[in-house]
Design goal:
Blueprint (H helix, E strand, L loop, with lengths): L5 E5 L2 H4 L18 H4 L2 H6 L1 H15 L8 H13 L4 E5 L5 H5 L4 E3 L2 E8 L5 E3 L12 E5 L9 H9 L3 E5 L11 H7 L3 E6 L11 E4 L2 H10 L3
Parallel strand pairs: 1-2, 1-7, 2-3, 7-8, 8-9
Antiparallel strand pairs: 4-5, 4-6
The chain binds 2'-O-acetyl adenosine-5-diphosphoribose.
2'-O-acetyl adenosine-5-diphosphoribose binds next to helix 1.
Length: about 230
């Protein structure tokens, strides 16, 4: 039997039960902040300290010992272990490192990573576990893709989507492109498309199979059918 090629798109919903806020829920991250201030390059130029404070706060939250991968992250890591890194790719919109902590290896962080910063001049990407002080280093920006910027590794993602047998979308509201359009590309490539989310996403009608419930429950159950 040939091993299926599986592309998994994850969003903030997969990390909600690990204690990290989603963006668009009531009390979600974007409720207390103006996206234009903290998630655009223009906002950064206007007030870099406010932007660094925001990502410093998120970086600290992520490293709180209570924040750990949940059963959904572990199920995806097990899938990769069973089917091989060549056959399972996680494309995550999340800037946390919970997929890595769970043991997944083949991961694309299309929106960047909270535990990295980037030198604006050289493009060098550097690990970062502490607060960034703009006054001390004006060249370092968060390694985060802001609105209006191009997500990372898009060529690799489209290549994987074009070969996928399964496309599984987990914990994303379908508000943000290009990720929200991946299901159409996978469908065109003949993949089986599956949505696992707490509630129907904006792109719900594009998926062939939909299962709704908390990620820690629905993801392990569905992944078990593929192993
Ligand atoms: P959203 O906050 O837009 O959506 C999170 C989704 O997860 C919603 O559809 C929720 O119903 C669902 N959800 C919540 N709790 C869940 C649980 N326990 N189990 C399963 N699903 C659950 O987050 P994203 O779709 O990830 O970009 O947002 C996409 C992008 O918008 C983010 O990467 C971020 C943001 O602006 C950047 O910062 C660049």
């Amino acid at each position: 039997m040939t091993i299926p090629k599986i592309v998994i798109l994850t969003g903030a919903g997969i990390s909600a039960e690990s204690g990290l806020s989603t963006f668009r829920a009531q009390n979600g991250l974007w409720e207390g902040y103006d996206v234009n201030d903290v998630a655009t390059y223009e906002g950064y130029i206007r007030n870099p300290t406010v932007v660094h404070d925001f990502y410093n706060m998120l970086r600290r939250k992520l490293q709180n010992p209570s924040v750990k991968p949940n059963a959904a992250h572990f199920a995806l890591a097990e899938l990769e272990q069973k089917l091989g890194t060549d056959n399972v790719l996680i494309v995550t919109q999340n800037v946390d490192n919970l997929h890595e902590q769970a043991g997944s290896k083949n991961i694309i962080h299309m929106h960047g990573e909270l535990l990295k910063v980037r030198n604006e001049k050289t493009g060098q990407i550097i690990d970062c576990f502490n607060d960034v002080n703009y006054q001390q280093n004006k060249l370092i920006r968060p390694h985060i893709v802001w609105f209006g910027e191009i997500p990372l590794q898009m060529e690799q993602i489209y290549d994987a989507l074009s070969q996928a047998d399964y496309f599984i979308s987990i914990g994303t509201s379908g508000n943000v492109y290009p990720a929200a359009g991946f299901v159409q590309i996978a469908n065109q490539a003949g993949a089986k498309s599956i949505e696992l989310n707490l509630e129907p996403s904006l792109g719900e009608s594009l998926f062939q199979t939909k299962i709704y419930g908390p990620a820690s429950k629905v993801v392990p159950k569905f992944i078990a059918t593929l192993i």
